[in-house]
Amino acid sequence: MPRQPRTGVDETILDAAAALFARHGYEQTSLKSLADAVGLSKAGLLHHFPSKDALFEAAWAQSRVLSGQVAEQVAPMPAGPARDRRALELLTDVALDRPGLVSLLFRALTAPGEDPQQAQDELMINEMFVLDPEKDLPRAVRVIAALSVMAVLTLLANQEGDKTTWRPLILATCYDALGHQEA
After folding, report:
1. For 44-69, what is each residue's pLDDT tens digit?
2. Residue in 136, 137, 145 with CA at minimum distance from that of residue 176
3. pTM of the model
4. Given phi > 0 = left and psi -120 to 50 = alpha, else beta, which region is 126?
5. Between vectors from CA 1 to CA 46 and to CA 28, what angle results, nearest 5°?
6. 20 to 30 A from 129, CA-CA: which of 38, 42, 137, 163?
7. 8-177 belongs to CATH 1.10.357.10
8. What is the Cα–Cα distance from 32 to 49, expressed in whole angstroms?
9. All structural domains of the chain with their residue ranges
């Protein structure tokens, strides 16, 4: 079982590592590139996480914790536009604060088979948006589109350093992707 992050440094390492794993996959991400991404030597990185595998597992675990928190918050809400909007708000806030971890979570949608627990991640997303992909393919496509747009736009917002201005635009775009009309 991966350990939970101890400090802000560990959280920064996890987010940077998750971004690299999401972008390049586990096999193509080297320990050196992980260390370079957070400004540490390989030995310094291994002080925080004993191996690349441990770092990968910790990043997935933290990503699941964050998505699980979102799922728990929307679970009591009835299916529909209000629940979708709340899920998008919560996911966008997480993505703006922890873009790497959200990218890794969304990789479950774009790189099937990379992680043995991906089915759990897909199920959590389906539960968040009350989605049965086999029965409602158009909605499944819209949810994937909304989450993809969110991932790209939150990364851009972080690059621009202007999360406050971008947040409502991201939410409106994601909400539109789901086919909902603004009230």
Report:
1. 999 999 999 999 989 888 888 888 89
2. 145
3. 0.81
4. alpha
5. 50
6. 163
7. yes
8. 13
9. 8-177
